[in-house]
Design goal:
0% strand; 3 helices; mainly alpha
């Protein structure tokens, strides 16, 4: 088994993204984000609680659709 460092692994990922033409910017990320149209009510409630806790802790919540 071959062992690689996380830095080498990250470089390999970036190289693969360039090879396949994947753009890693905010607009592309938003386009790929799950819009949540098939989420259960329980999952929606969970995402709402996560957002509330992040705000209460003074952190920027992760964008999630619920």
């Amino acid at each position: 088994m071959k062992t690689i460092s996380m830095a080498d692994f990250a470089r390999q990922i970036e190289a693969k993204k360039r090879e396949i033409g994947m753009v890693d910017d905010a607009e592309t990320t938003e386009a790929l984000r799950n819009k949540g149209t098939n989420r259960t009510p329980q999952k929606r409630a969970l995402l709402a609680r996560i957002e509330e806790r992040a705000i209460a802790a003074g952190r920027k919540p992760v964008c999630s659709y619920y």
